Amino acid sequence: MSANIAKRIEEIAAMPIYRNRQEGLLTDLYQLTMMYGFYKSGRMEQHVVFDVFYRSNPCDNGYVICAGLEQVVVYLNQVAFQPDEIQYLRSLGLFDEGFLEELKNFRFTGTVYAIPEGSVVFPHEPLVRIEGRIFELQLIESAVLCFVNHQSLIATKATRIVQATSGGVIEDAHPTSEFGLRRAQNSDAAVFGARAAYIGGCSSTSNVTAGFNFAIPVSGTQAHSWIQSFDSEIEAFRAYVHAFPERAILLVDTYDVLHSGIPNAITVGNELRAQGYDLLGVRIDSGDLAYLSKAARKMLDAEGFGHTQIIASDDLDEDTIRDLMLQGAKLDGFGVGTALITAKGCPALGGVYKLAAEKRDGSWIPRIKVSENPLKVTNPGKKKVIRFYVDQKASADLIMLDEETIPQGEPVTLFDPIHTYKRKVIQDYTVKELLVPIFVDGEIVYEMPTIEQIRSFARLELATLSSETRRPKNPHVYHVDLSLPLWELKRDLVARRGHVN
Amino acid sequence: MSANIAKRIEEIAAMPIYRNRQEGLLTDLYQLTMMYGFYKSGRMEQHVVFDVFYRSNPCDNGYVICAGLEQVVVYLNQVAFQPDEIQYLRSLGLFDEGFLEELKNFRFTGTVYAIPEGSVVFPHEPLVRIEGRIFELQLIESAVLCFVNHQSLIATKATRIVQATSGGVIEDAHPTSEFGLRRAQNSDAAVFGARAAYIGGCSSTSNVTAGFNFAIPVSGTQAHSWIQSFDSEIEAFRAYVHAFPERAILLVDTYDVLHSGIPNAITVGNELRAQGYDLLGVRIDSGDLAYLSKAARKMLDAEGFGHTQIIASDDLDEDTIRDLMLQGAKLDGFGVGTALITAKGCPALGGVYKLAAEKRDGSWIPRIKVSENPLKVTNPGKKKVIRFYVDQKASADLIMLDEETIPQGEPVTLFDPIHTYKRKVIQDYTVKELLVPIFVDGEIVYEMPTIEQIRSFARLELATLSSETRRPKNPHVYHVDLSLPLWELKRDLVARRGHVN
Questions:
Q1: Of B436, B383, B491, nearest to B126 (Cα)?
Q2: Nearest-CA residue of chain B relative to A39?
Q3: Which tens digits make up the pLDDT trace of B309-324?
Q4: In what order do the strands lie in the sheet with A204-205?
Q5: How distant is the Cα of A278 from the closest Cα of chain B, in angstroms?
Q6: Residue A30 and residue B183: Cβ atoms within 8 Å?
Q7: A69: Cα separation from own chain's centroid
Q8: Measured between alpha carbons, how far is A333 from A204 in angstroms, rounded to an integer?
């Protein structure tokens, strides 16, 4: 491991959110019973390849922003069993002492390739490809899926919401803060969700633990209870700007936005000016945000507060935000809670972990899982994924066998793996391989990017998609095809599987 | 604190899931800026009462099972700021050193009343009532809401799913295991979600961390990848029962349930019998579960495996389970993942935390938050909640002011707080006060129940509801009324508030 890589993983693993995690048992019981089965039948050392992929985009979206790899890397780097965990497993009465001894010595020694966080990805693409002893790869399935599914889901949802603030024009998106802690599905959902939301384009979070751990900007000013705890709204405003003259964003809807909140904000804004400060903004958290924001804008402008921002919150989601903007709402920023932090409407990404190949007598034997549903038949073999760019736009992806040569500019004929008559010739392209090495034989070989790097990268990635693929409803379906050798292998294995029970 | 209470909180706080948590910063930034505002304006010591309540039942349900109190108690008991957290807050450039000093010495010293975990509760009822310094009560809002919202949501969803297995007859519910780890919204959602699901009536979880921490039964056998990793299905079955002859539940749908899985299971079942064991069950994870289970049942019965259970999984939820049972599916148990662990369809409970009263010159001044939406107007004052039982069935709840006398058997006229012409006289009742003391001046006074006690209590609580209130769609709306003094207070404050800005 190079010094830079080692330093970076040390920095990350020292974050309080990662420190002190006991994650050996963060798995489904059947992983342990299967591991015991492999142990009992002398097959622990069997080398295999598993792929993490998902079958359909969440929320009718046209893509996913993958996220969660950092959490996976920390987990794989430190997964182990503590004495109290071994004792618990012993108490279940399922396992013998030899097996528990194997767990005591457990560490992850596999090889991992993954698509970096912030990348745009599509159904059926291996997001993480893990190679190693089946004994280890069985244990880690549940946690790896949990982390990748959760963070990718929230990052994707965030891109939908942030794009809605500007009708899909990425460069014009308004600042959007993640406000969901109180409605999150417990603490990790809030904290890792805030991280994922930031990767997906949010500008800040209200969640201080997320700010503390991940160096995400934090934002927030006051609640209705603050206003109520004073005898009048203007006293509450004055007390707030007394504490934070440089961060004066005032919540104006506790009593009546247009007849109380905005007039009082203007009064306090003039007092602030006299002290050399500026009224940064007002927040409206209820009522008709389109009507109120337009009226408030006029009132503020008329009093010389043209730069004072109007921030909206109140159970917003991408649909409401889009409708508000279409109605000409004068909103400069958004706070989004429940809908973002739970990915309301699509609260799970269905990532799966499937056996792709098995080593027998030194060579890889591709494995397949058949199903009556053609979309559920897995892609066999150890694979890689490449992306073709034409004029800097992502044009199509190709899933190939690992041993295949990557095209270098020659025209390539792509065909739909289900409806093979659909063909497309691609030329004048550049090409990028998506999976990069993360672990080799249990050693980290990847210098983990900072969250700012990941967030910037996600923005660049989004910009490589056509606006049709980024459309929130009925998006253009991006081409993800199989190489001819992979397609033929799959066809042959399906045909053969029909006869093997 | 009594010795029993102290011992119990020590036991609970020692659970690895609670140990080593750093939760001082698990809050929204605006709580800290408001705390700073109180500090700067000399109002830190202001005593207030906040209520935790929600406004509508999730998933069109008729009730909520409240859960999460244990997590709240542990949090309140240990919430503090570590040196690295103070340093982070300093780095934000928002706060002065005097304030950071206050945080260094922060501990919770308030008084808490709460409705015990496992209780059936309804909209607008204070589930947790917290009294203390506004400086402390502001900090804890976000985490308290997060825990109560999440665990109550999942416990409630679990009751919907478990009841669906027997058409709503609680006593006849089939064992239902929580299988959602891989689709949970990160680790805590999986682990605390498994706890809540168990409280709500699930019989076990696949999540080993949840089993380890909370002593929940764990279950699970093998995945498709186990079957695939052998050259044939029957070899895979034999290897599994070799490892676990006493826990033989075989996954029979990898290739073909009726032509391969069940015949192979019967062969292995006969081999098991010859060794003195029994084939406990088969699991079907794909295909038409109604058709397949009926056909499989016949095949098993015909070969003398009448006691072998048929377990179903495959993206189940309460609606699918109900439909399967209505179609006569022969299913003895269920594994439910995504829909349960994310509460798909309703992934957040909208619990809020609202100021109810403020102490001024030694007496409590009730506080209200008005809104154009009558359902959003808060109930003012320090309150309690009582439940009337008639013939052992919960008949109505009454929210009262804390100083009111609880009725002792005399006829009581209840009226709907919004549509006051709706009246109901209740007599021949018994009465229970729902809020119980948890903390007094920062000291725990509550002996925390075990999870088995909570789960049994939840089952008893459900049984106090009519089947009409437990109906999954369009349930009977349970009566939650306000006492006349509370209603009058609210009316007067609303009238007065109209003139105070």
A1: B383
A2: B243
A3: 999 998 999 999 999 9
A4: A204-205, A176-178, A333-336, A309-312, A281-284, A249-251
A5: 17
A6: no
A7: 9
A8: 11
* Distance between first and last Cα of chain A: 45
Per-domain residue ranges for chain A? 3-156+349-380+435-476, 157-341
Q: Which chain B positions have a beta carbon within 8 Å of A343's beta carbon?
A: 347
User: Residue A62 and residue A397: Cα distance in Å, rounded?
Assistant: 14
Q: What would the CATH number be for the domain defined by A3-156+349-380+435-476?
A: 3.20.140.10
* Rounded average pLDDT over B65-88: 98
Q: Torsions phi, psi of A142, nearest 5?
A: -65, -45
Residues of chain B neighbouring A367 (CB-CB closer than 8 A)? 228-229
Inter-chain CB proximity B219 and A351 less than 8 Å: no
CB-closest option in A225, A232, A355 to B229: A355
The two tokens of residue B484 are: 């006349």
Please answer whether residues B314 and B285 qualify as being in contact, where contact means their C-beta atoms are separated by less than 8 angstroms. Answer: yes
Kindly list the residues from chain B whose CB atom is less than 8 angstroms away from the CB atom of residue A260.
501
**Cβ burial, residue A146 (10 Å; 0-12/13-18/19+):** buried
Contact B451/B195 with Cβ under 8 angstroms?
yes
Which candidate in A32, A212, A213, A316 is best for mutational testing of the B interface (most B CBs within 10 A)? A212
Cβ <8 Å between A146 and B37: no
H/E element holding A271? helix A262-274
Is A157-341 the same fold as A3-156+349-380+435-476? Answer: no
Supply the pLDDT for residue A151.
Answer: 98
CB contact under 8 A, A501 and B232: yes
Which residue of B18, B31, B84, B186 is the best one to mutate when testing the A interface, meaning the one whose CB has the most A CBs within 10 A? Answer: B186
- What are the tens digits of pLDDT across the range A231-284? 899 999 999 999 999 999 999 999 899 999 999 999 999 999 999 999 999 999
Beta-strand (E) ranges in B126-278? 128-133, 176-178, 204-205, 249-251
A209 phi and psi, to 5 degrees?
Answer: -60, -40
What is the structure's pLDDT at B498? 52
Per DSSP, the three-state class of B209 is: helix
Phi and psi at B152, nearest 5°, equal -65, -40
Count CA atoms within 13 Å of residue A93 on its CB side.
4
Q: Looking at this protein, which amino acid is placed at residue B440?
A: V
The number of C-beta contacts closer than 8 angstroms across A and B is 325
Band of pLDDT at residue B499, cut at 50, 70 and 90: very low
Q: Which helix (H) or strand (E) holds B482?
A: strand B480-482
ipTM above 0.90, yes or no: yes
β strands within A158-308, DSSP E: 176-178, 204-205, 249-251, 281-284
Q: Which CATH number fits domain A157-341: 3.50.50.60, 3.20.20.70, 3.30.390.10, 4.10.910.10?
A: 3.20.20.70
Q: Report the distance separating Cα B492 and Cα B477, nearest Å.
A: 27
* φ, ψ at A207 (rounded to 5°): -80, 110
Cα–Cα distance between A277 and A272 in angstroms, integer? 5
Beta strands A443-444 and A436-440, pairing class: antiparallel
Q: Does A501 contact B138 at a Cβ distance shorter than 8 Å?
A: no
The structure tokens listed for A173 are 């998106």
What is the structure's pLDDT at A463? Answer: 97
Which pLDDT score is estimated for B26? 98
Look at residues A42, A25, A141, A30 and name the one whose alpha carbon lies nearest to residue A98.
A42
Q: Which residues contact B57 (CB under 8 A, 6 or more apart)?
A: B63, B64, B122, B123, B156
Query: In residues, how long is chain B?
Result: 501
* Pairwise CA distance, residues A453 & A117, whole Å: 10
Task: Classify burial at A498, counting beta carbons within 10 Å of its beta carbon; exposed 0-12, middle 13-18, buried 19 or more.
Answer: exposed
